[in-house]
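Regression test case RT-17, inverse folding.

Input:
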């Protein structure tokens, strides 16, 4: 596919150009500018909008020792491939629970993480990722391994460690390090060290088509916990956002869009009830909201900041609604992967950003091509 509406470069204008040839059509090629220093930005092409696809709750590696598990991963690749080919997004956000680490009986879960990235990477589409509650969860021994049928069908020896079958899992830091170091099109970041054990906390700029130094929007990414630490956005993360947003957007004129995995408790408050869902758009009553364990101040900061337009989360596989919380929109993505619970049809939430005037539109694109739940989130 041809990637329209976007260039890669550094904020310091230290760039390197080369030609990328599409894997889907060898006749298509394009010039891409990639960073060679630490900072990146995304730039809208003149006359174009900027489109983002959200891939949520893929759960690669689930029941990896069975026939069922790998078949689900193949189906998930098909969902992503269909969305990418139909929508041709400029950017992809992996919105947590990329893998089901508690089901992965191998030393390095990055093998499954890389498989989940493959449809996006093969199309030379840039992406960013955040962590969910399953991505570095501890391995859970399957009960069937202890049944009368006997030995687990997996070679679990670990060379040179003196241990066997420990399956300690792959840490958030290791997963992120592997993604960043081995993928030129990854915009993911580990984030500030002082926010540890929270890892995927960072901001990306979408720049104006006329001037790469002029921001059209800022995208903030957060690690909402789970797995190796509690399911929360900490006070430290909230303070980091408050300080960072003041530094780069002091007058709050530039719109800000927020991404993390587990919904905050405010999602439960605004969730439509008893068919009374004025202004809410999407699938609303398939299940109840499963929020974070506690609220540590992030939502108050977001609500008080006029530039924040919307928050996007995953986690609840049966919900894909957007509901207003005063001037802020709270939205679910759409369950994309065949791993994880529930049999609801798979798809992706799509975002589209227009520059002049600024507009943030969204809809759901299903695996079968059906589109629904159009909503304007910048009003």
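Golden output:
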């Amino acid at each position: 596919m041809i990637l329209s509406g976007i260039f890669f470069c550094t904020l310091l204008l230290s760039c390197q150009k080369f030609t990328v040839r599409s894997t889907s059509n060898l006749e298509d090629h394009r010039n891409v500018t990639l960073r060679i220093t630490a900072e990146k930005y995304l730039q809208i092409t003149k006359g174009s909008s900027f489109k983002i696809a959200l891939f949520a709750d893929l759960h690669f590696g689930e029941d990896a020792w069975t026939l069922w598990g790998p078949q689900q991963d193949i189906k998930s690749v098909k969902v992503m491939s269909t969305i990418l080919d139909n929508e041709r997004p400029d950017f992809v956000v992996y919105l947590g629970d990329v893998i089901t680490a508690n089901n992965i009986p191998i030393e390095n879960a990055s093998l499954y993480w890389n498989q989940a990235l493959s449809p996006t990477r093969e199309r030379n589409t840039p992406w960013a990722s955040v962590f969910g509650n399953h991505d570095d969860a501890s391995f859970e021994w399957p009960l069937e391994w202890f049944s009368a049928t006997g030995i687990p069908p997996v070679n679990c020896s670990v060379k040179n460690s003196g241990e066997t079958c420990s399956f300690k899992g792959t840490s958030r830091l290791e997963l992120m390090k592997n993604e960043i170091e081995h993928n030129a099109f990854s915009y993911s970041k580990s984030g500030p060290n002082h926010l540890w054990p929270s890892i995927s906390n960072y901001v990306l700029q979408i720049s104006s088509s006329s001037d790469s130094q002029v921001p059209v929007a800022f995208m903030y990414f957060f690690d909402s916990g789970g797995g190796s630490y509690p399911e929360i956005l900490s006070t430290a993360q909230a303070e980091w956002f408050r300080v960072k947003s003041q530094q780069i957007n002091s007058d709050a004129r530039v719109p800000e869009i927020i991404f993390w995995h587990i919904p905050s408790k405010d999602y439960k408050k605004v969730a439509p009830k008893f068919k009374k869902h004025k202004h809410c758009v999407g699938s609303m009553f398939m299940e109840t909201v499963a929020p974070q364990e506690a609220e540590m101040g992030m939502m108050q900061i977001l609500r008080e900041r006029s530039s924040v337009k919307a928050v996007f989360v995953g986690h609840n596989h049966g919900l894909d609604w957007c509901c207003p919380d005063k001037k802020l929109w709270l939205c679910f993505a759409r369950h994309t992967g065949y791993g994880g619970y529930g049999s609801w049809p798979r798809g992706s939430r799509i975002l589209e950003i227009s520059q002049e005037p600024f507009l943030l539109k969204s809809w759901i694109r299903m695996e079968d091509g059906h589109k629904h739940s159009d909503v304007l989130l910048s009003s």
